Amino acid sequence: MPIKLPFRSLSANWLWIAGGLAVLVIGAVTFNRWWPAASHWASATIAARRSSNSSAHDSQGAASDPAGHDHGDHEHAHDAGNSLELSPQAMKNIGLTEEFLTPVRLETYFRSITVPAIVVERPGRTRIQVSTPMSGAITHVHAVRGEAVMPGMLLFEIRITAEELVGTQTSLLKTLGEIEVENKEIARLTEIAKSGAVAQKTLLERQYARDKLEVLMAAQKEALRLQGVSDRQIQDIVDHRRLLGELQIRVPTPDRHDHDELELTGGQLPASSGTDDGAPAALNDAVAEPKPIENTPLILQEVLVSKGERVAAGTTLAVLGDMSELYIEGRAFEQDANLLATAAAKGWRVTAVFDYAGPEIEEVADLELLYTASNVSIESRSLSFFVRLPNQLLRDIPSPNGLRFIEWQFRPGQRLQLRVPVEEWRDQIVLPVDAVASDGAETFVFQQNGNHFDQVPVHVAYRDQSRAVIKNDGSIFPGDVVALRGAHQLLMALKNKAGGGVDPHAGHSH
Questions:
Q1: What are the DSSP calls for 354-366, one per residue?
Q2: Could you tell me which residues come within 8 angstroms of residue 69 by beta carbon, excluding any fewer than 6 positions away?
Q3: d(CA 97, CA 503)
Q4: Contacts of 369 (CB under 8 A, 6+ apart)
Q5: I need a labelling partner for 284 at 20 to 30 A (CA). Which of 161, 177, 268, 390 fits?
């Protein structure tokens, strides 16, 4: 038989259901009024319970710590297993100075290829040969091997014995005398011709003879120019009627080409000055020492003659070296030709890496790629390309006897490596390789957090010999300060900390 519930029980159930629905409707309508207060009350209650538990724990720990250490000032925001606290001495030991604690920033990274290279001379510019334009005997040598000399300084003095030069000068002086005689005769006949005592034909013949002598004198002057005598020096012969008997060879100027003076050695040489005491005039005037034309010193690499030696025209007297700028010859593979052409076309800069004794490595960045060789080496199958290398002085040493010796930073023959960019990546996090430490499959950097360094796992997208590209996936952000060196030491210290002896602080996290 069906069970019949009392009327009162059914009424009570409906009342409970209606009341519950009413409460839900009222709660939903007034949610914005009561929910913030309730949430705040719940959070405060939970925090109070945690605080009481922590205080009880600290009290118990202090009671059990016989040293009575106070840990209330220690931070508990970081994980002790992934964090290190370094003393100032430890930071100095691994080289973590302010220079290597800088914020991370986004930058453009160039993926590069590394090729061997060697420092070479600039063809036709680094080596400067000093020669004599005419034969003679060396009377003085004014410089020594290895000395630094400036453009315009006197190197050699030569007594001229060239028969052609002496004969041309003698012929010029003879022609000058004949022209003077003809001018005097023409002046005398001009006065007589006015009175009619001499025919005009005679005067014209003398004028024609003078014109022929002037043509001959012009030819003789041109012959002197071909023999290396300047216009001012020729004028000096004309004015003073003395032969040029001495030649002074001075340091040439590499980048000046003034053809008004004797240029067979490349330098600007002053005109000779004839004297009235009968002394022979010099081919290059030595009355006043000329001022150096340039400030770049040259090195006297070789002195090939000595005092008293007789030299023929064109003989090399010395070899100078201009080390102010050199070339780097890189040797790439034949299949890298297109990569080199792309780098040169886009104006990408090359970095030179010099390895010195010990751990010292020097990088010279922002070098210009000049050109690629037009042929491939048959023996090595390598393709040469050339990079401009500006040089700088390291030492300038004056000696007690007045000589000067210098030392350049780079020298021909030095071996190095070149990093040539072949691909451009923009907006990348780029760190030195010393900022990244690996442990198996994991790679870490160490982010500075107050006086601690926190171990942060990262993804290395690319790595070369000096830099690592970190994936911008949120592990570190631009503006974070990370240790740019010593990451491996920090990782080892962290491992030693994790595997060390019993902690006297009873497992506290700091």
A1: EE-STT-EEEEEE
A2: 62, 505
A3: 30
A4: 340, 343, 344, 348, 349, 350, 385, 386, 387, 420
A5: 177
Pair of tokens at residue 256: 């000046």
Query: For the chain, how many residues are written?
Result: 510
Strand order in the sheet with 136-141: 281-282, 244-250, 154-160, 136-141, 310-311
Q: Which domains does the chain have, with CATH numbers?
A: 7-53 (no CATH), 83-107+426-498 (2.40.420.20), 113-122+323-423 (2.40.30.170), 132-313 (no CATH)
Q: How far apart are CA 422 and CA 417, in angstroms?
A: 16
What is the CA angle 378-380-383, rounded to 5?
80
CA-CA distances (angstroms) from residue 70 to 58, 63, 80, 508?
9, 11, 18, 11
- The DSSP output letter for 125 is T
Q: How far apart are CA 354 and CA 368, in angstroms?
A: 17
- Cβ atoms of 166 and 229 within 8 Å: the answer is no
Task: Going residue by residue through the chain, which has 510 residues, state the pLDDT in tens, using 9 for 90 and above.
Answer: 444 545 455 566 677 777 777 777 777 766 666 666 666 566 556 545 544 444 444 444 444 444 343 434 334 345 667 888 888 888 888 888 888 898 999 998 999 999 999 999 999 889 999 998 888 999 999 989 999 999 989 999 998 887 888 888 899 999 999 999 989 888 888 888 777 777 778 888 888 999 999 999 999 999 888 877 878 888 888 888 888 888 889 998 876 654 433 433 333 333 333 333 333 334 444 333 444 445 789 999 999 999 999 999 889 999 999 999 999 999 999 889 999 999 999 999 999 999 876 667 888 999 999 999 989 988 888 999 999 999 999 988 887 788 899 999 999 999 999 999 998 999 999 999 999 999 888 999 999 987 789 999 999 999 888 889 999 888 999 999 999 988 998 998 888 877 654 444 434 444
Query: H or E segment at 419?
Result: strand 415-432
Q: Is 137 exposed, middle or buried (0-12, 13-18, 19+ CB in 10 A)?
A: middle
Angle between helices 7-29 and 31-64 (to 10 degrees): 80
Sequence letter at residue 52: S
The identity of residue 54, as a single letter, is: S
Q: What does the block give as tokens for 89?
A: 């001495």
